[in-house]
C-alpha cells in the first residue's frame, strides 16, 4: 500500500491505495516525490506511472476529507495534488501513464500532464468534481479532449472511454487490460533507446512551447474550490457523496 518506485532505465512509479486508489492527502506528495526522484536519477530514461487494483485513480479520498477537522485535509490535498501534477509535468524524462479501469478527478491531473498515455480497453476518464462540490483538473482534461467536450464533461460529470480518446490522439495505444503494463514498457523501451541527453532536452523544449501554463492554470481552478468550501457548497456535496456510499 502506498506509492512505490522501481528504479532502472525504465523506472516505474506505482500507485497502490486499495480498494479503488482514492489517494489520501499524504499520497499526493508521495507521488510527487517518487516521480521527481525517478527523473532526477541519471540512469532513468523514461518513467512509467501505473497503478495496482481496480482502477488507475479514483481521485482524492473524499471520506478522509470529511473525517478531518476544519479545512486542514482539504488544504493538504490541494497542495499535494498541485505538487503531484507538477512533478509529472516537470519530470526530467518522459512520463508514460499506464491507465487501467477508471481515471477520475486527480487521476486526470496526472495523466493530462503525462507525455504519453497507454490505456487498457476497459479504461474510462472523467471529472466528477462538480458532483463533489469542487473544481480542478479541467486544465488537464483540456489537454485530452476538444474544448467543448471538456466543458460538457465538466458540467455533466460524464466519462469518456479510452477508445474515444484514442480517436482524438490523446491516448497513444489501447490494449487488453492484461497487456497494459507490457505495452507501456514497450513504448518506454522505444524512447529509452534514443540518446538520453537529446530526450531530456526534448522534454524541456516541449514544456517550453506549451501554450498554457498548466501549473498556474490549475492553481487558478483550485481557488474556486476554496470558495465553494467557504460558502458551504463543497461540504454539502462531499457529505452527500459519503452518505450515498
UniProtKB/TrEMBL annotation:
Matches recorded under InterPro entries: ClpP/crotonase-like_dom_sf, Enoyl-CoA_hydra/iso
One Pfam family linked to the record: ECH_1
Gene3D superfamilies xrefs: 2-enoyl-CoA Hydratase, Chain A, domain 1 (3.90.226.10)
Keywords in alphabetical order: Lipid metabolism, Lyase
SUPFAM superfamilies: ClpP/crotonase
Family, similarity comment: Belongs to the enoyl-CoA hydratase/isomerase family.
NCBIfam families the record matches: PRK07938.1
Name used for this protein in its record: Enoyl-CoA hydratase family protein
Record organism: Paractinoplanes globisporus
Lineage of source species: Bacteria, Bacillati, Actinomycetota, Actinomycetes, Micromonosporales
Amino acid at each position: 500500500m502506498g506509492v512505490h518506485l522501481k528504479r532502472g532505465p525504465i523506472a516505474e512509479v506505482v500507485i497502490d491505495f486499495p480498494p479503488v486508489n482514492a489517494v489520501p492527502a499524504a499520497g499526493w506528495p508521495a507521488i510527487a516525490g517518487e516521480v521527481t526522484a525517478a527523473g532526477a536519477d541519471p540512469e532513468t530514461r523514461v518513467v512509467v506511472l501505473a497503478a495496482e487494483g481496480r482502477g488507475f485513480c479514483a481521485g482524492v479520498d473524499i471520506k478522509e476529507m470529511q473525517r478531518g477537522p476544519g479545512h486542514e485535509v482539504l488544504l493538504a490535498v490541494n497542495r499535494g495534488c498541485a505538487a503531484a501534477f507538477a512533478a509529472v509535468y516537470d519530470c526530467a524524462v518522459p512520463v508514460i501513464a499506464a491507465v487501467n479501469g477508471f481515471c477520475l478527478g486527480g487521476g486526470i491531473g496526472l495523466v493530462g500532464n503525462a507525455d504519453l498515455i497507454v490505456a487498457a480497453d476497459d479504461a474510462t476518464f472523467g471529472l466528477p468534481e462538480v458532483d463533489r462540490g469542487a473544481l480542478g483538473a479541467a486544465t488537464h482534461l483540456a489537454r485530452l479532449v476538444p474544448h467543448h467536450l471538456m466543458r460538457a464533461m465538466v458540467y455533466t460529470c460524464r466519462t469518456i472511454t479510452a477508445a474515444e480518446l484514442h480517436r482524438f490522439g490523446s491516448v497513444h495505444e489501447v490494449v487488453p487490460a492484461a497487456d497494459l503494463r507490457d505495452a507501456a514498457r514497450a513504448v518506454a523501451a522505444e524512447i529509452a533507446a534514443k540518446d538520453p541527453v537529446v530526450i531530456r532536452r526534448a522534454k524541456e523544449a516541449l514544456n517550453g512551447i506549451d501554450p498554457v501554463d498548466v501549473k498556474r492554470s490549475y492553481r487558478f481552478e483550485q481557488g474556486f474550490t476554496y470558495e465553494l468550501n467557504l460558502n458551504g457548497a463543497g461540504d454539502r456535496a462531499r457529505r452527500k457523496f459519503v452518505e450515498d456510499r
